[in-house]
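Listing S7. Sequence submitted for prediction.
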Amino acid sequence: MKKQEFLSAAIAAARQTSAQSNLPAGVTVAQAALESAWGESRLAQKANNYFGIKARGDQLFIAMPTTECETGEMKKLAARFARYRSMAECFAARDAIILTAPCYVEARGHAREPLAFIHSLAKHWATDPAYAEKLEAIYLQHSFASLDAHEE
C-alpha cells in the first residue's frame, strides 16, 4: 500500500468511525500512521491492525514480535495482536476501546481538544515514553488537524 493509498483509506475510515464516536478523526489517522508505519507494517498488512491492538480472549489473533518499554528498558517479546477483516473494523475497534476502557476517561474528556486528547491517550496506549510527542508531530506536520476543524 502506497502512502497516499493508506491516507485515503485511513481518512475515510477515521471519518466514518469519528461520526459515531465523536473522537478526533485527525488523531486517529495520525495514530494509524505512527503505529503502522503508514500502512507498511507487517501487522497492518497481515492482520489489518493499524494500532497495535492486542488480542483479548478468543479474538482472532496473529502472534508477532514487539518491543515494549518496561521500567525504562526496551524489551523484545512476542505478543498476540488482534486480527481484523478490514481497516474500518480495526478503526471501529480502536474507538470502542477508547470509549469503554476506564483508563481512557481523561482522553474521552478531551475529545474536542485534539492535542490534549493525544497526550491523555498516550498515557495508556503505548509504553514508548515519547509516544505523545511522536503522535503530536505526525498530527501537526501532516495537517491532520484539518480533519478535526468541525469538532473544535
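Caption to Listing S7: primary sequence and predicted C-alpha cells for the chain studied. Residues 50 and 135 are 14 Å apart (CA to CA). The chain has a mean pLDDT of 94.
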